[in-house]
Amino acid sequence: MENYWHNFQSLGDNCEFGFVQHRFGSYETSLFRWAAINDYEGLISAIKNSFDGLYLEENLHPRTATLVTDKSYGIAFHTDMPIAEIEGGFDFATSAADRHDTYLSEYDKYRYLAEKFNIVIDSEPKIYVVKQEYSAPEIDLMRELLKCLRERGDASLLYVMLSDQKHAPGEVNRIARNFYVGYIDKFAGASFPDSISISVWEDICKKTWHLHSASGKSHLRRLAERFSLMRAADDRAAKRNSSDLPPAFNAEHYLLANPDVAASGISASEHYLKFGRTEGRPLRP
Q1: Is residue 175 part of a domain?
Q2: pLDDT-based confidence at residue 85 (cuts at 50, 70, 90)
Q3: 142 pLDDT band (50/70/90 cuts)?
Q4: Is 281 left (phi over 0), alpha (psi -120 to 50) or beta?
Q5: Does any domain span residue 223?
Q6: Per the confidence metrics, is the pTM higher than 0.90?
Q7: Is 275 domain-assigned?
């Protein structure tokens, strides 16, 4: 089996995708693998703030018998702090002093996972997976989430929603660069892992990975073609302006030394003559 599962990371809205990854041999834990996310605007805020203030004791509120919600970001985490069901909801079953040691242990764990998330998003390409089981699809909000993720690193988004008459289970569409929508026949509800639609999840992730890989190769080809055209333009410009360029000038070296010039699309020789010489730009890396 192709080992592509480590390229995906869960962003909720509950543990379902974590069980899917576990089923296919991906055991590495992450901040949201076993978390519950209902407030994606809060998640966007958390990512932008690098999770500053996450899991502070004063912000934790019991959500179920085993979950506490961090009210600062609207994210729920599993806890071993005792929780009792009361009329109208849940509350901690022990005093703050009695549960403090457990809280400190959990704080250290979630802060470690938050820092790990920060490192991964800043340095590794990932496809982040979102499913919204209990609310209507929010494509525009997902675009905002993807924008937020890509401001940090090489991130893509797979948004999984229920299939319908137009979209069959297992179908995946690339609706924008780095943004994929997959369709599943059902979500597991609270009955995971037994009721997870494993085969459809596998189909969705496999198709997404193949689409993403092909898209990445196409992007690299386009960059290579653009660079080739720029070099050709540089060669022509260099011939026209050879008398004005320094003897050591090399267009390829100049572009490598000045990546902003390469990104601008202007030829190396033209940039050097108009701007680079007076700016004192380096001629080589």
Answers
A1: yes
A2: very high
A3: very high
A4: beta
A5: no
A6: no
A7: no
Contact of 67 with 79, CB cutoff 8 Å: yes
Q: Is residue 239 scored above 80 in pLDDT? A: no
Per-residue pLDDT tens over the stretch 174-194: 999 999 999 999 999 877 788
Q: Which helix (H) or strand (E) holds 251?
A: helix 251-257
CB atoms within 10 A of CB 156: 24
User: Residue 10 in contact with residue 17, Cβ under 8 Å?
Assistant: yes
Residue 139 within any structural domain of the chain: yes
What separation in angstroms does the CA of 158 have from each of 99, 225, 226, 283? Answer: 38, 29, 29, 42
> How, if at all, do strands 75-78 and 67-70 pair?
antiparallel
- Which structural domain, as residue segments, surrounds residue 118? 5-218
Instruction: Assess contact for 56 and 114: CB atoms under 8 A.
Output: no
| 266/285 Cα distance (integer angstroms) | 18
pLDDT digits (tens, 9 = 90+) for 42-73: 999 999 999 999 999 999 999 999 999 999 99
Residues 262 and 112: their CA atoms lie apart, in Å, by 38
Distance CA 10, CA 130 (A): 7
Q: 248 exposed, middle or buried (CB, 10 Å; 0-12, 13-18, 19+)?
A: exposed
Whole-number Å distance between alpha carbons of 58 and 285 = 51
Is the pLDDT at 102 greater than 50? The verdict is yes
Domain count, the chain: 1
